[in-house]
Amino acid sequence: MHRRKKLSANAERRLRTRAEEKLGRARERLARMQPGGEPGRPIDVASASVVEAQARSMACPKCLGPCQVVEHAAETMQGQRLRIAKVICNHCGSHRAIHFRIVGDALN
Ligand SMILES: [Zn+2]
Q1: Taking the domains of the chain in order of start, what are their residue ranges?
Q2: What phi and psi, each to the nearest 5 degrees, are found at residue 102?
Q3: 92 C-alpha vs ligand 1 centroid, how far in Å?
Q4: CA of 65 to the centre of ligand 1 (A)
Q5: Residue 6 C-alpha to ligand 1 middle, in angstroms?
Q6: Residue 79: exposure state from Cβ atoms within 10 A (0-12, 13-18, ≥19)
Q7: Which of 41, 39, 43, 40 is nearest to 55 (CA)?
Q8: What is d(CA 69, CA 20) in angstroms, rounded to the nearest whole number?
């Protein structure tokens, strides 16, 4: 006599969590290949003042949660003015850096 084996709620949750983590890692890899994910692939912005708002508007690639900017650094690389926004996810706490390039003409 066989009783149908049913996954316990815990086992089901574990399975789901593993699947979500896998998806999250795939999304993180994808995010690195997208604009802003690397210094060599910055997002063009007209001025430094929009960097933080733009970085905040980009959801966490891992869990799609909202992020906040924890650091905003200016760097010059190969003659390009880059801005690096370091964000942390409010939801899962994962960190990432988003790269921007200032392309607008500086007025001052
Ligand atoms: Zn997250």
Answers
A1: 10-102
A2: -85, 115
A3: 4
A4: 5
A5: 31
A6: exposed
A7: 43
A8: 24
What is the rounded CA–CA span in Å between residue 58 and residue 54? 7
**Does the pLDDT of residue 108 top 50, yes or no?**
no
* Distance from the alpha carbon of residue 88 to the mean position of ligand 1, in angstroms: 8
Do the beta carbons of residue 17 and residue 9 sit within 8 Å? no
From CA 63, how far away is CA 82, in angstroms rounded?
Answer: 27
User: For 94-104, how does the pLDDT look when each residue is reduced to its tens digit (9 = 90+)?
Assistant: 999 999 999 87
CB neighbourhood size of 66 (10 A): 14
pTM for the model stands at: 0.79
